Amino acid sequence: AGFAYWMGMRLELGLGVSLAAGVAAIIGHDWPLYLRFHGGRGLGASLGVLLLVFPLGFLWVLFMTAMGYLFGKNAAITLSGLVTLPAWAHFTRQPREVVWATVAMLVLTVIKRLEANREPLPPGRERWEVLARRVLLDRDIQDWESWAHRRPE
After folding, report:
1. I need a labelling partner for 14 at 20 to 30 A (CA). Which of 8, 42, 116, 127 fits?
2. What is the pTM of this model?
3. Tens-digit pLDDT profile for residues 93-120
4. What average pLDDT does range 36-58 have in this prediction?
5. Which conformational region is residue 93 in: left (phi greater than 0), alpha (psi within -120 to 50 degrees), or beta?
6. What is the DSSP letter of 36?
7. Sign of the C-alpha dihedral computed for residues 100, 76, 42 and 47 taken in this order
């Protein structure tokens, strides 16, 4: 994704088009056609764009991701880094296109967490609990170890 942004800037397509290319690459990472739309989480791709266009934002999200890992593999801390990223971009007087790109990164992350590579949702009330865990914890169950070591059925 960082390469897509860099290439757009190298071809002098402008900041907005270059950021759109970076965001499109994040989408391609999250939902790759050749893997039947079962892709990654997009954090690494987002960091690639941030490194080039908003280094302070890159460091912020990287720091929050490290804190999340250190404090019990807590994806909510990483999410809080992404949630606050548009405000960081705005208050550090980044161009409007950068602010909107950080909003897009946040929205794509939340969508990806919610759809979880199209894993089925349980019926009834548990459905809402699973959706909340997907957004906050980036998994369907509370226990990280069980989730990380699960096997395909």
Report:
1. 42
2. 0.85
3. 999 999 999 999 999 999 988 888 778 8
4. 91
5. left
6. T
7. positive
